[in-house]
Write a structure and sequence with these properties.
Length: 240
């Protein structure tokens, strides 16, 4: 297993060092994303990217493993974790991501008894065939049009809800369920690539902004100011 030193961190812009918890997620996804739904740390990191507080340091993080067929179940669990954390397969047994996920992956590999089968390394020089430009590499490794389309659906739904007030508690809760489902549908497959690697314009940031505004509006529609439990785990992450 190769793990050389501490992985490099991008320098955070002024105004982004806003608390220990936020700083911990500021340069990567280590420690978040262990659940198979968007956890608060994952969503917080997305909003930090939207505010320009998680710049890319130019490093690709690569994870390689060779697990025998006799350990197929453990291998499949490791692959699912890598997929969930946004890593993309480069070739058989080799995954790449611009985000730091090594700590989380090493911990899970150890739990699965695969620590000795895993190698990790970083590089600023990734090539796929003749492609070396980071934006082109990202477009080849991740299904960005599909992800963008899901964010478009989220933005459309949030915009529709923001255009009118919910009529009664039943409609308010129905809207909350639909918004939460659309938010999860958009966020779950998103590898949260650094903005530097995404096509412009990219709909993710605007869709998340509209979703947060819609959530606040739905809570404001309640006569008693009741907060929606569906969004309890995400409350406050827009600023965190």
């Amino acid at each position: 297993m190769l793990l050389v030193g501490e992985e490099p961190r991008g320098e955070e812009p002024a105004g982004c060092q806003d608390g220990g918890e936020a700083q911990a997620g500021g340069g990567g996804l280590d420690g978040v994303g262990g659940e198979l739904t968007p956890d608060a740390g994952y969503v917080r990191y997305a909003y930090r990217q939207d505010r320009g507080c998680a710049p890319w340091d130019g490093h690709w993080h690569l994870i390689a493993f060779a697990v025998p067929e006799s350990r197929r179940a453990a291998r499949d669990q490791l692959r699912e974790l890598l997929r969930h954390l946004g890593a993309a397969p480069v070739q058989s047994g080799l995954y790449a991501t611009p985000n730091r996920i090594t700590g989380t992956v090493l911990a899970e590999a150890g739990r699965l008894g695969l620590g000795e089968e895993l190698s990790t390394f970083t590089s600023t020089d990734l090539r796929l065939g003749a492609a070396t430009d980071p934006v082109e590499l990202a477009a080849r490794l991740w299904p960005l049009p599909e992800i963008a389309a899901r964010y478009g659906q989220l933005a459309d739904l949030a915009g529709e809800f923001l255009g009118t007030n919910a009529q009664g508690e039943a409609e308010r809760l129905t809207r909350a369920v639909r918004l939460a489902a659309a938010f999860t549908l958009a966020m779950e497959p998103d590898p949260l690539l650094p903005p530097e690697l995404l096509p412009r314009p990219w709909p993710g940031a605007e869709a998340r902004r509209l979703a947060a505004e819609c959530r606040r509006a739905l809570e404001g529609d309640a006569a008693d100011g009741d907060e929606l439990r569906l969004f309890a785990r995400y409350r406050g992450v827009e600023e965190g």
